[in-house]
Amino acid sequence: MTGRIFIFAIAAAAALAGAGCRSSSPFDERCRERLERLDATIADKERYEQRKRARIDSIEMRVPTAADSTELYALYGTLLDEYGKYDVDAALGYAHRKLDLASSLGETALTRRSEIDLATLYAQCGNYVEALEMIAQVDTTGMSTSDRYAWHNARYVIYEGMSLVSVDADCRKVYVERLDAERHALVGLDLPMTFVQAEIMRSRGDDDGALELLLQMSDEEIGSIHGRAVWAYSVAQSYINKGESNDAIYYLAESALCDLQTPVHEYRSLYELSALLYDRGDIERAYEYINRSLKDARQANARINIHSIERLLPIIIRSYDTLMSRKQHRLNMLLAGVTLLTLLLAVAMILVRRDSRRAARAERRQAAANEELKTANAELLRINALLHDANNLKELYLCTYIDLCSDYIGRIDEYRRELNGVARSGGAAQLLETLKSNARIDRELKSFYERFDRSFLDLFPDFIDQFNALLREEERVSLAGGELLSTELRIFALIRLGVTDSVKIAAFLRRSVSTVYNYRVKMRNAALGDREGFECRVMSIARLD
């Protein structure tokens, strides 16, 4: 009967735990593969960042040794391109140097191109007044086709940013009209402008035509990995307009993958992808992606992106609340399984006690008839006494564990409310700072160790005295004022509870494995009698009532 109860308890607990952990992917195989590659790229982001920094450093090292002003101007231009969507502040520095150098050379064409580049950067970081003033002073007389393209593109970036941040509907309408005019002006140039043509088609509602134009582009036409990011983003916008979310997710993930491998910090694909993933129920990825996007946008000082991401901040809040709700649900399911197991264990203990009492009575009735059976009965009584003590210890363990579970559920909920308050009052920046802080973890660890010490000493009140009795007098452990257990005592308290693996002990105490090993060797060397059997004697320390 008891065995069947235990089997049923394990099966029930496993079923409840499984119910709390089951999930299914909302994506097809193609999207799932692309998202997994994107996850791997984000995890390996530091490698791409180091490669980017190494490339920039190698170019910057050539600046002091430039042979002439022409080479120096070219180096400034290269650095401007490298920093353009990576660190706008650094790019602005080189744009100013480039403009100053061009002005000192008296080269009209170089000065014009430098002014256009500076105006574009001003727009990227949200300085629209300065951008408009700079682009207005550009001398357009006799401009080459490439310079005219750059001039119209700068105006395009300015009006696109102003249309995104404008809160006045009439002003936004004017900016959109000017943006459309610049888009048509770009197409009017004698240059391959597939992306702009596709954008015009998309603005007119012809997403099928835009897709046909984009999807027939060759790899040579798409160009670099950054060009592929732009291409995939443009394709995704048409699929978004058509309501085909699977294809939109695939191409946004492709665009984000290329952006992060370039790498750049000013992009749209990743945070727009997070919004689609949120709608599809992939909360964990949406939360991770939008936080990654916000961090990169702040690092690049890309104010247009920061503004767009901040409009999606409710996604962060809802994502966090949903994540906490899911974890709470799983914890509740596991707690229900533990509670069920505890109840069934209590029933089994009652049955064991009942059987033990029956056996004891039967042994006592036969004691007078058989002296040998009387001896066996005495041994059984001793074993029953040990079992009784073990059962008491199990009850204490269970009570302590249930109390800890209840307490930490409350603390998790308290922390959730705290973070929710931080997010509402301080925004994403303060929320990120709060999440980075280790202060709460340190407080929780200190509280946990105090509770562990008290619970252990409740179980073994004479543990310290019995432990010191195993050591030479000069090596016995003494405690500082108010200290319940020292680190050495906690190590051997865990060993008394059956945790003998140094790796597990180190993880529990947040110490290194070598530190735990050294403490164990130190205590064995201080032992009275056989050193090799010291830890076995510690594990034999009994609870004295």
Describe this structure in words.
The chain is an all-alpha fold. The protein has a domain of 89 residues: Arc Repressor Mutant, subunit A. Helix content is 79%, strand content 0%. The chain contains 25 helices and no strands. Helix 10 packs antiparallel against helix 11 and helix 16 packs across helix 18. The longest helix is centred in the C-terminal third of the chain and has 66 residues. The protein is elongated, with a radius of gyration of 35 Å. It starts with a helix and ends in a 6-residue tail after the last helix. About 1% of the residues have low confidence.
Record keyword descriptors for this entry:
545 residues; elongated; Arc Repressor Mutant, subunit A
Task: Give a nutshell description of this structure.
It contains 25 helices and no strands. It is mainly alpha-helical and about 550 residues long.
In sequence order, what are the helices and strands, one letter per element? Answer: HHHHHHHHHHHHHHHHHHHHHHHHH
Q: What share of the residues does DSSP label as strand, in percent?
A: under 5%
Q: From the helix content, strand content and strand pairing, which structural class follows?
A: mainly alpha
Helix content: over 70%
Report the span from N to C terminus.
Answer: 33 Å
Named at the architecture level, the CATH assignment of the domain at 457-545 is Orthogonal Bundle
Gyration radius, in Å: 35 Å
Low-confidence stretches: 19-23
Largest sheet geometry = none
The total count of helices amounts to 25
Silhouette: elongated
CATH class category name of the domain at 457-545: Mainly Alpha
CATH topology value of the domain at 457-545: Arc Repressor Mutant, subunit A
Number of strands: 0
Mean pLDDT: 83
